[in-house]
């Protein structure tokens, strides 16, 4: 794929949706086909088994994260379950310098902040067919009852904000390929390719 760097300049793609909506799986697939680069989230939470620094997340101390906020080094940030998460501006610049469009995979509340700061960004809201699907997926992941309840409450709140975003795509259970095709088409139109 050889795309004109200038054509992709100043573009930003955001995939958002509630927990267990499938946004991670969709992001992985579209990265295979389009001139995008996933921007790695920075967090204060400790690495989980198997997670690698700089691949899954940028892991930093709470002090460092607060310093990044003070220095306006983050495009957006949010607190979730006692930890901080955010997107470093330098990671967006690195993607653009490589001739690629930054791809953020963030929750809907972060996506709102990104959209406010970057009104020309493409934000795609991914949702499941129902809250029961979210619950099923969270159980399959091994989430605890308290975590499931919290994420379902957040999912309800996120779904109420769906109409704020330009695009909303239903990720039907067992039909990831169809969802990926729809998302790819939306992104290609936005990028003009």
From TrEMBL:
PROSITE patterns: GUANYLATE_KINASE_1 (PS00856), GUANYLATE_KINASE_2 (PS50052). SMART domains: GuKc (SM00072). Coiled coil: none annotated. Residues 10-188 form the Guanylate kinase-like domain. GO terms for molecular function: GMP kinase activity. Keywords: Kinase, Transferase. GO terms for cellular component: cytosol. It holds the Pfam family Guanylate_kin. InterPro entries: GK/Ca_channel_bsu (IPR008145), Guanylate_kin-like_dom (IPR008144), Guanylate_kinase_CS (IPR020590), P-loop_NTPase (IPR027417). Belongs to the guanylate kinase family. This is Guanylate kinase-like domain-containing protein.
């Amino acid at each position: 794929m050889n795309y004109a760097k200038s054509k992709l300049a100043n573009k930003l793609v955001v995939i958002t949706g509630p927990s267990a909506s499938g946004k991670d799986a969709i992001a992985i697939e579209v990265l295979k086909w389009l001139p995008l680069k996933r921007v790695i989230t920075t967090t204060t939470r400790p690495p989980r088994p198997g997670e690698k620094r700089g691949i899954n997340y940028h892991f930093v101390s709470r002090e460092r994260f607060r310093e990044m906020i003070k220095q306006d080094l983050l495009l957006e940030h949010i607190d979730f379950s006692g930890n901080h998460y955010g997107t470093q501006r330098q990671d967006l610049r690195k993607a653009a310098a490589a001739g690629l469009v930054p791809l953020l995979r963030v929750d809907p509340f972060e996506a709102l902040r990104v959209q406010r700061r970057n009104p020309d960004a493409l934000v795609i809201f991914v949702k499941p067919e129902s809250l029961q699907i979210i619950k099923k997926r969270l159980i399959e992941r091994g989430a605890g009852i308290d975590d499931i309840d919290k994420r379902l409450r957040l999912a309800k709140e996120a779904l109420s904000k769906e109409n704020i975003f330009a695009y909303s795509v239903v990720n039907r259970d067992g039909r990831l390929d169809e969802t990926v095709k729809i998302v790819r088409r939306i992104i290609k139109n936005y990028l003009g390719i």
